[in-house]
Amino acid sequence: MQISPTLGTENQSPYQVDSRREIISLLKGLRDSNQLISMLIHSGSEVFITSILDIDEENNLMIVDSAPGKLANQRIVEAPRVSFEGLLDKIGIQFSSANLELIDFENRPALQFAIPPNLIRLQRREYYRINTPLSTPIKVSMPVDIDGKLEIIKFSLVDISCGGVAILDEKKVLDCSAGKTFEHCKLDLPTVGLVDITLQIRNHQELVLLNGKSNRRIGCQFINLSNSVLSNIQRYIMKLERERNAKMTGIG
C-alpha cells in the first residue's frame, strides 16, 4: 500500500497562498478545530497522523504532535522534507517544512518547525489518495446498463481520497466516458456499512498485468457528497493510515 501525495504533481500556483496572515489563519483553523492531519516523509512512503498543538507567531514557530515511537520520530527529524496534508471545511490544506526538531511541549514529546512561508489550499479534488487493502478489497456497487438492462455490478477499489475513488473494471463493462455520472452507487465501508454516493467518471487507464491480462483503472469523482458521508470516508482513510503506521512501527 502506497500513498500518492499531490504535492509537486502539477502546477499548483493558482492554489498557493503566500499571505502570512492567511497562512496563520488557516493553520489556526486546523488547530482550533482539532483536525487530524497527515505527516508524510520520503515522498509519501511513510505517513503519520498528527495535529497542530501550537502556533507561535512571535517566534515564527509551530508545534505538532509527535509520531508514536522514538524510531519514527528520528526518521521524521532526519527527513530532508516533511509534507503535511489536512482538511479544513472540505478544503484540502497542504504545506511542507524542513529541519523539524523534537521537543517537549506541555510535558509530552512534540515536533517543532518554522511556520511555512506558503501553503497550498485546494478547493477541488487534489486530495492525496491512499491505496485500499488488497487482501480485503473495498467494493462499490454501481448500476450499469448492459445490453439495455440495468444491472448492479460490484467493482473493487484501488484507492480512495476525500474527493473520489479509483476502481478496477476487469470486464470493461462501464461506460468510462469522461463526465459520465452514475447515481445511486453504494460504497461498502468497513465498520460503517453501505453509504450512498454519486460518482462521475474523470479518467481511465488501460493496464497490462504481469500475467499478460489487461485491466481498466477508472478514476471517479464524488458528486455532492454529504457531510456525514465525507466524515465517514475521512475516518476510514485515517483508520487505514493508523493501521499502516502500526505495522511500520511494529505495534500491529
TrEMBL record:
Superkingdom of the organism of origin: Bacteria
**UniProt xrefs under InterPro entries:** PilZ_domain (IPR009875), Split_barrel_FMN-bd (IPR012349), T3SS_YcgR (IPR023787), T3SS_YcgR_PilZN (IPR009926)
What Pfam families does the annotation carry? PilZ (PF07238), PilZN (PF07317)
Q: Where in the cell is it found?
A: Bacterial flagellum basal body
Would the keyword Membrane be found if you checked this record's keyword annotation? Answer: no
Domain Type III secretion system flagellar brake protein YcgR PilZN, chain residue ranges per copy: 15-121
Q: Which UniProt keywords apply?
A: Bacterial flagellum, c-di-GMP, Cell projection, Cilium, Flagellum, Nucleotide-binding
Q: Which GO terms describe its biological process?
A: bacterial-type flagellum-dependent cell motility; regulation of bacterial-type flagellum-dependent cell motility by regulation of motor speed
Kindly list the GO molecular function terms attached to this UniProt entry: cyclic-di-GMP binding
Gene Ontology CC: one annotated term: bacterial-type flagellum basal body
PilZ domain residues are 123-238
Its biological purpose: Acts as a flagellar brake, regulating swimming and swarming in a bis-(3'-5') cyclic diguanylic acid (c-di-GMP)-dependent manner. Binds 1 c-di-GMP dimer per subunit. Increasing levels of c-di-GMP lead to decreased motility.
Q: What is annotated about its quaternary structure and interactions?
A: Monomer. Interacts with the flagellar basal bodies.
- Describe the family membership recorded for this protein in Swiss-Prot or TrEMBL: Belongs to the YcgR family.
Q: What's the protein name?
A: Flagellar brake protein YcgR
